[in-house]
Design goal:
The protein is α/β, with parallel strands linked by helices. The protein is about 55% helix and about 10% strand. It contains nine helices and five strands; from the N terminus they run E-H-E-H-H-H-E-H-E-H-H-H-E-H. Helix 2 packs across helix 3 and helix 4 packs parallel to helix 5 (about 90-105). The longest helix is centred in the middle third of the chain and has 15 residues, at about 120-130. It binds adenosine-5'-diphosphate.
């Protein structure tokens, strides 16, 4: 299990779980949200281009996002695999990811779908806003991001379902519980030797 997509709504724990799971799988965790935030912090041209969109909770255009992701996947540490968090989010990005992975004759091994109810997600995101001060964690922008997820991104699960790639995991409970569920879902798909 080396090329994995972590799918799910904002606030479901993709960042936390993605980091831990990537370590367990021995692959880099690649978050397009983190890549964009690094551009915002560094004040790069790309950062300036996307700042208003990210603050408003809107998706960055596919052309920009796809190019940034392609550059990241071309780095040597991603050659043996990766865990993607926050990408793909549009049908165009699904196609681009298939193309990029296919260039090296590989394919996506699994799509892990983490899920939780919207009221729980809103509660978590509002809580995180106080801790991390993310500009896109205001109540209005949070509701907008959840809405965009449901209208634009969630329907893409059907594409991966058709390929038999989706593993559904309950994102409620403690981070340790969710981590164990993710490991169990992967182990069921790909039994590994004990020890
Ligand atoms: P969350 O999952 O909490 O919404 P992320 O950190 O994954 O947050 O993303 C933050 C923001 O970065 C998004 O709201 C969006 O503006 C932008 N972004 C991240 N990934 C993508 C993507 N694949 N396509 C378009 N925009 C993206």
């Amino acid at each position: 299990m080396q090329r994995v997509v972590l799918f799910g709504p904002p606030g479901v724990g993709k960042g936390t779980q993605g980091g831990r799971l990537a370590v367990a799988l021995g692959v880099p965790a690649i978050s397009t949200g983190d890549l964009f935030r690094a551009h915002l912090r560094s004040g790069s041209d790309l950062g300036k281009q996307v700042e208003a969109l990210i603050k408003a909770g809107d998706y960055v255009p596919d052309s920009i996002t796809n190019e940034m992701l392609a550059e990241r996947l071309a780095e040597p540490d991603a050659a043996g695999g990766f865990l993607l968090d926050g990408y793909p989010r549009t049908a165009d990005q699904v196609v681009e990811l298939d193309r990029l992975v296919g260039l090296s004759g590989a394919a996506i091994d699994a799509v892990l779908l983490l899920d939780a109810a919207d009221d729980e997600l809103e509660r978590r995101l509002v809580g995180r806003a106080t801790e991390q001060g993310r500009a896109d964690d205001t109540p209005e922008v949070i509701r907008h991001r959840l809405g965009l997820y449901h209208s634009e991104t969630e329907p893409l699960v059907a594409l991966y379902d058709a390929a038999g790639l989706v593993l559904r995991v309950d994102g409620t409970g403690s981070p340790d519980e969710v981590h164990e569920r993710l490991l169990a879902a992967i182990a069921l798909r790909e039994p590994t030797p004990q020890g």
